[in-house]
Amino acid sequence: MSRWHCYMLECADGTLYTGITNDLEKRLAAHNSGTASKCTRSRLPVKLVFSEDKLDRAAAVFRGDCLDTIEEDQRPFHPVDIDDLGGERHPLLELVL
Q1: Start-to-end CA span in the chain (Å)
Q2: Under a CB-based contact definition with an 8 Å cutoff, are residues 40 and 31 in contact?
Q3: Residue 11: enclosing H or E segment and its boundaries?
Q4: CA-to-CA distance for 52 and 19, rounded, in angstroms?
Q5: Residue 41 has what pLDDT?
Q6: What is the dihedral of CA 26, 18, 13, 34, to 10 degrees?
Q7: What does the pLDDT read at residue 33?
Q8: pLDDT digits over 73-86, tens only?
């Protein structure tokens, strides 16, 4: 069984994008190359600001939907380990769920 991830990106213009994937590194690379989403294509580069592992696709979709319903300036974040992805810690990661 593959592991699924709910993730959130901050785009270059400050907007937030929520998505799911079963290969986070590959999906981030696709976003930054402009091939993953019409929404992020015109807002490059993007940075990972939130990631949460889920056991299955349905759980990842549910979590992403929950995050999408929260106003953008009130979205909760918790620290994620993004060093393995070559990223930097984002200031929004200081807010805790």
Answers
A1: 27
A2: yes
A3: strand 4-11
A4: 11
A5: 92
A6: 30
A7: 94
A8: 665 554 444 444 44
* Cβ-contact 77, 95 below 8 angstroms: yes
Q: Which amino acid is at 2?
A: S
CA–CA separation, 60 and 90 (whole Å) = 22
Residue with token string 């937030």 = 16
Report the length, in residues, of the chain.
97
Strand order in the sheet with 46-54: 16-21, 4-11, 46-54
Task: Give residue 31's identity as a one-letter amino acid code.
Answer: H
Count of CB atoms within 10 A of residue 46's CB?
23
φ, ψ (nearest 5 deg) of residue 69: -85, -10
CB 49 within 8 A of CB 92: yes
pLDDT at 97: 34
